Amino acid sequence: MNRRVWYVYPLLKRVSFSLIAQRHIKELRQYFTVEEIDELAFPLIVPFSNPVVLIHPYFYVMMHGSKYLSYKLPKYKAIIGVDVADSSRISSLAVSMTDYADAMIVPSNFSKKVYVDSGVKVPVHVVPHGLDDEYFSDTKYKSDMFNEMYRIKGNNDKIFLLSFIIHSDYRKGLDLVLDFYRQLKKERPNVVLVLKRAGLYGSTEEMIRRLGGIVVAGWLKEEQKLALYDLCDIYLLFSRGGGFEHNGLEALARGLVVLGARGGAWEDYMPEWGLLPSKPSGEVLPGNPVHTGTGVEVIIDKAVDEAIKIIDNLEEYKAKVKEYRDKVLKHRFRWSVIGRQLRDIITKYI
Predict the structure, then answer these.
(1) Are 107 and 129 in contact (CB under 8 A)?
(2) Which strand (E) or helix (H) includes residue 342?
(3) Could you write out the DSSP letters of every residue in 173-224?
(4) Most confident range, picked from 126-130, 200-204, 217-221
(5) Residue 189, C-beta contacts closer than 8 angstroms, at least 6 positions apart
(6) By percentage, how much of the chain surpasses pLDDT 70?
(7) Cβ of 175: how many Cβ atoms within 10 Å?
(8) Is 199 a residue whose pLDDT tops 80?
């Protein structure tokens, strides 16, 4: 049996798709011979080994390379697209591109429903993102990178609110996070917003500092990221859209209380008590050729009320998170579990 797999992804640049793809590849190499191929090179390569091809992200590659692929389709054993749904709908153009694929893999039940409701006819498999075992350990990580934050928290009994908003400010809900922080700080002056950004120097970053917040910028090594989670108390998952939102899962596994809008893809891993009342949002990514739908957004007043209740009973809520991590997350979201799910899907097409 030919067990050769090509995994096509952004090999020569570092983006979120690359990180997930590299973890998929690490797991799949336990079961298959996997060749890594850069997304820009793939349309130009003629296969002779009859591989099963995973394309991640599928729509970007197909928009730029589908005209080169049509005559080569018989040379592939199967094509499996890996992508997300960042909003409540994908475009008719995106749906038509899935006709080239034998199947699609998406990270959440939300994404699967969007694909099916939008008209995708090929099988759509749900395979969530995973976490390394370190995320489920009780080891507490520290990093010299955050010495000033340790000092601030230790001396003043601060409550740190964390949010990762590195790109897509509107989709990730930056405006909602800032509005929430302003209102909550009036009621609980000891809260400090810690915002993970791509860079330090911009009007948004300056405004956050004026509000008494802290900006963490640049690429973090895995142990630094773990240390950042371990320094904070509550994670604000205020995205309007997204196909999974990996940082919310990471935060839960590290023991943070995570708050997110009801109705998003993150419901697959969130405890019921962490879901906040929400309302429909407008277009999540205006002008995007693939993700053309709407999203959800937290109702700020209700989010503030819930946050006050949590802050006033923080240790009780952290204990609930730990119990949820050990009973639910640890068994469903390890990368080893995800690897077996991918193996079983690919085996169907081999």
Answers:
(1) yes
(2) helix 335-349
(3) THHHHHHHHHHHHHH-TTEEEEEEES-S-SHHHHHHHHTT-EEEES---HHH
(4) 126-130
(5) none
(6) 99
(7) 14
(8) no
Runs of H (alpha helix) within 295-334: 300-311, 314-324, 330-332
- Exposure letters 176-196 (e unless 16+ CB within 10 A, then b): bbbbbbeebbeeeeebbbbbb
Record the tokens describing residue 72, joined without a space: 């080569």
CA–CA dist 7, 281 (Å, integer): 35
Residues belonging to the chain: 350
Query: Which pLDDT band, with edges at 50, 70 and 90, does 348 fall under?
Result: very high
Residue 297: what are its φ and ψ, rounded to 5°? -140, 145
How many CB atoms are closer than 10 A to CB 300? Answer: 18
Contacts of 326 (CB under 8 A, 6+ apart): 136
Burial 240-267 (b: 16+ CB within 10 A, else e): bbbbbbbbbbbbbbbbbbbbbbbbbbbb
307: pLDDT strictly greater than 60: yes
Residue indicated by tokens 């570092």: 14
For residue 140, how far is the Cα from the chain centroid?
Answer: 23
Q: Are the C-beta atoms of 311 and 191 separated by less than 8 Å?
A: yes
Q: How is residue 326 annotated by DSSP?
A: I
Task: Name the H helices within 70-103.
Answer: 92-97
Residue 284 has pLDDT above 70, yes or no: yes
Reported as a single tens digit per residue, the pLDDT across 82-95 is: 999 999 999 999 99
